[in-house]
Amino acid sequence: MSKLFNNYINGKWKASSSGETFENINPANHNEVLGRFQKSNKKDVNEAVSAAEEALPKWRATPAPKRGEILFKVAELLLQQKESLAQDMTREMGKVIGETRGDVQEAIDLTYYTAGEGRRLLGETVPSELKNKFCMSVRMPVGIVSAITPWNFPIAIPSWKLVPALVCGNTVVIKPATDTPLSVVNFVKVCEKAGLPPGVLNLVTGSGSEVGMPMTEHDKVNLVSFTGSTDTGAVIASSCAKNMKQYSLEMGGKNAIIVMDDADLDLAVEGVIFGAFGTTGQRCTACSRVIAHKKIVKKLTEMLVTRAKTLKLGDGLKPKTDVGPLINESQRTKVDNYVQIGKNEGAKLVTGGNPATGKDCKNGSFYQPTIFADVAHKMRIAQEEIFGPVVAIIPCNSFEQAVKIVNDSKFGLSSAIYTRDVNRAFKAIETLDTGITYINASTIGAEIQLPFGGTKGTGNGHREAGTAALEIFSEWKSVYVDYSGTLQKAQIEHD
Ligand code: NDP
Question: Quick check: is 284 catalytic?
Fold first, then answer.
């Protein structure tokens, strides 16, 4: 029997009231069960929210530098346990070990950086229009936060939500994706060991409908922070809007790399391959469109096909593996359906296009790295998020047309351009309608000290990471101190 994992509520590891569990399966080897996790329900959510409510007054009254000190210890422990956390993550999620180490490193970076906010949490002091009066703004916690996270960055994304929420003085209930509960259990254990008081952080595992929805609808929850699909984001947004709750959504993209005729093609090829097939294409910033100038499109396509064919698929724990599996069978079916759609739309399949079933892949959800050429930018494979190792090459006639194609998308997360022309690079920064733009680099590789998020359907205007995250997880309070000893009237005493 595989190992049993519990929920974490009010500082205790305990079973769900449902008495039921679900299995966590290795996507590279369906015969390996990593453990059984609690199939929780609304009752467990209510208990977790009550624990968060009880812990809130003391936690918000804890000086922010002290909160930051505990989080600093979280970063130290993550660093100590980096290798074992990464190995567990590869086994439950599939991405290659170099990338899962990067995932944990991102959480370490973010936690060190954000722990320091405990000694800043900067507000403003501004002059008053009246004499003997002092004006400032300070950050206050929002209250109880529900964090709902996806499977593609099983520790990094939870850290983006938990750490800023906690440093700002909020208490949290987190629900990990059903496919990756182990990494979040590991993360919560680190927080427990670092000395986070009971009830400040609570973990409830289970499905989106049985756990995620009650976490969204609970009337004591003040803020829902979500990363995942657009469909689920829309459900969460409308539920929160009805109940006047705050929400922050990060929902993916249809990210593009422009390759101009003056680009260093070798560099561009490496950027496209890393962006399209890294994490098996399952990043919200994955490159799924290449907008290539007509003068180089043929050569670039040949180079990409040659390079894609060298990628080695298999178990991400093996050091020679370049590309791991997709997260599960339904994701593999989704990717395969999109490949059929692309063929039916008339795009030219130049490599891949099938599930991978060779000896290193036979027990997992693998899919061949796939490239379509001659794609028209209105085709569904150039408009919809596939979330797999599929990239569409779209020819263009000019820089201006390339920018138009990139921007003709309902998403606006990440974009990139390969060019040696500095004027064009700056024009791209100015005109590409995305939250992130890379010059001579791929669409992936964000660093934690800058805001992360996108325009249009990618989100609802918020940014995670950096100091931008504080805008999500704190409320402004404006403070006026009148030391005149008289009734002074702002605006009215103007003349
Ligand atoms: P979902 O949006 O369904 O899942 C994300 C998180 O939301 C999970 O924890 C999920 O729980 C939870 N959830 C699901 N339904 C609800 C609900 N009604 N209320 C509250 N929480 C809910 O994404 P999927 O995992 O199903 O992936 C589907 C597609 O989403 C992908 O193909 C990709 O296009 C996109 N995606 C984008 C990501 C990004 O980084 N922007 C990350 C992951 C997916 P559970 O796991 O239990 O279903």
Answer: yes
